[in-house]
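Troubleshooting: if your tokenizer reports a length mismatch, compare your output against this known-good record of 216 residues.
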Amino acid sequence: MRLVSRPSKAPPSLDAQKIAEVIRRINALSRQTSLEAVHAIGALVVREFAGDVARSGAEATGRASYRKLAARGDLQLSASALCRAVGVYALCVRFGGPKTWRHLTPSHLQEILVLGLSRQEEFLRTAEDERWTVARLRAEIAQKRQRRVGRSDRALVRNLRRLKLVTERASTDLTATDTVALDAATVIEMRETVRLLEQFVAKLKALLAPMARVEG
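Known-good structure output:
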């Protein structure tokens, strides 16, 4: 039985010429430090790599063509900065756009990215109204997160550790064999598993990207 994959609604992978044009536009924008410029970079990435602005930033950064872009040596932004720009754009889409915040900078919004959706608007509004510095915002978020670390956070970490073990075992199984005999139903199920894993990895990368500064 021959399995036929359904056509994807995602845009085709960008060719080298198109990627070069996207890099040229990103590099030009990266010379500016305004919130509008960072927003424009994120919008460009989402539009080119997720098909339309309604799709999620995580979906955009999960594309193979995005990873090819982020790895290019002529791109003047680091991969983490590019991912943060997508995150800033996503915040702007949710909560009103860069002109909504007269006193906030890209650095403010990057700090907000570590929060869950339910907390982001609250901190954005307070930081704007009280004109918090980036350092003040970072300290307030750290204090709040320290108080609110609960079962959901511990469950996520616990499940990620379990996933790591399962992935390591599955990787060993794949390495130990050259061919796998599977029926059609199992093939379909495994493809769906791969799709879900790709989405999960994209979301996890987006979650971890704002924390890159800690590693530095």
